[in-house]
Amino acid sequence: MSDLTRKSAAELAAHLVAGDVSSVEVTQAHLDRISAVDTDVHAFLHVSADEALATARDIDARRAAGEDLHPLAGVPIAVKDVVVTKGLPTTAGSKILEGWIPPYDATLVEKIKAAGLPILGKTNMDEFAMGSSTEHSAYGNTRNPWDLDRIPGGSGGGSAAAVAAFEAPLAIGTDTGGSIRQPGAVTGTVGVKPTYGGVSRYGLIAMASSLDQAGPVTRTVLDSALLHELIGGHDPRDSTSLDEPVPTLVDAARQGALGDLTGVRVGVVKELSGEGYQAGVSARFEESLELLKAAGAEVVEVSCPHFVNALAAYYLIMPAEASSNLAKFDGMRFGLRVEPTEGPVTAERVMSATRGAGFGDEVKRRVILGTYALSAGYYDAYYGSAQKVRTLIQRDFAAAFEKADVLVSPTSPTTAFKFGEKLDDPLAMYLNDVATIPANLAGVPGISLPNGLSDDGLPVGFQILAPARADERLYRVGAALEAALENAWGGPLLDQAPELETR
Predict the structure, then answer these.
(1) What InterPro entries does this protein map onto (predicted)?
(2) What is the DSSP letter of 418?
(3) Contact criterion met (CB below 8 Å) for 51 and 98
């Protein structure tokens, strides 16, 4: 059989069911690919080869015995290192959790294990998911497989790079302000942020609890639908979990792939285009709109006037919640503990020494911002005002969805930039998420799929947003656009990526 690492998860699943290949063969092929290219890409912080192969052998035996298995059983997956995994290191990309082995699994990991997907390992990320380039990991940069001198996006650059480099057919990411979708855009992969509460947050190391959401990272819209259906659903251990069934996402993706969007209204968000967007990004976006029209969709312009304030509101709400969530990392209960070298060993001095040594600069910056925003005398002026803006953004979405079934925009204003270009300019870095942040503030679902190459030869992403609890719309419209694009390209965009030199 041709290179197993190049096949989609759906294709691998079909071959496994047909008996054309074993899970051990599929898993070993991906482990070999990791060995060959990850020295350069650095998508993984930990590779769990023995555990993955043990799962694969178990699935092969159960399938041979005629057991009824999950459709994705035997298809390997990578997991972002902010998701707790029993028995495997979980660091959230931070020195403060270096070497921590959790005693329990996140709910989504329980579901992955129960379905029989071998876990290849844990992927690199910006520390505590704070960043847009994976340059803030305490364990080194992940590199973009399209150009190893460029960033893979963030905070989930490791998951996106692993999928783009054919090291894993599926991966888990988390998205607080764009950390699944923006890496998807710059690596030519598909990334989905489900409706807030659609996938359990139990076992995610929290950054901002009202914004965080786990979701799929894949190479096709159908693969994302398959993984989303697996990890979604109600969890009584998560108080924000939606108590309702997972939508029929796979059916929506298969329907969309037929290419008929007759009757679907697509709203172009006026405020998410124009100045600040790279010319090639804008050009590919306009071309994609024409493909949607050709599929029968009605394209209209909608205005969401308060989106221009989303970035400012986000960078008050998110740091405020992060400063609260990260207070648990105090050197007292788990993780790193640093005692002062001189003077008395008090709780306060241990906390100060531990957090000073264990947190990186970006985490410290956001904790300080958040603590300031929540402090007496500033709470109403900053955090309270930001929450009011959040309400206005939610109202903008509600009004826009009265005029359109889905909203669309470029995912990221630019293609992948070179390492170090924006590291010393936090505002320039934050602007990478200007188009993705509104969805997190409102809790609505979003998908990014690759829609071509910019003039610099690097991937561009197309973002689709749907109303809360209407995730199936993402998959129908996304699959239709994907089919039209691949017809125009003659195959998947990643086929045009330069081949990584293996060693």
Answers:
(1) Amidase, Amidase_CS, Amidase_dom, AS_sf, GatA
(2) B
(3) no
| This prediction's pTM | 0.97
For residue 8, how many other CB atoms are within 10 A of its CB?
18
| 463: phi then psi, degrees, rounded to nearest 5 | -100, 135
Interval 480-500: pLDDT, tens: 999 999 999 999 999 999 998
80, 122 Cβ separation under 8 angstroms:
yes
Chain-centre distance of CA 290, in angstroms? 27
What are the phi and psi torsion angles at 372 (to 5°)?
-65, -45
Rounded-to-integer distance, Cα 371 and Cα 77, Å: 37
Domain residue ranges in the chain: 4-307+391-496, 308-390
Could you tell me the fold of the domain covering 4-307+391-496? Answer: Amidase signature (AS) enzymes (3.90.1300)
Q: Please choose, from the candidates 496, 466, 452, 479, the residue with its C-alpha nearest in 3D space to the C-alpha of residue 278.
A: 452
Q: Prior bond to 155 cis, omega within 30?
A: yes
Question: Active-site positions?
Answer: 80, 155, 179
The pLDDT tens digits of the residues spanning 335-363 come to 899 998 888 999 999 999 999 999 999 99
Band (pLDDT 50/70/90 cuts) for residue 377 is: confident
397 token code pair: 């979405």
- Residue 290 burial (CB < 10 Å; 0-12/13-18/19+)? exposed
DSSP line for 425-461: -HHHHHGGGTTTHHHHHHT--EEEEEEEE-TTS-EEE
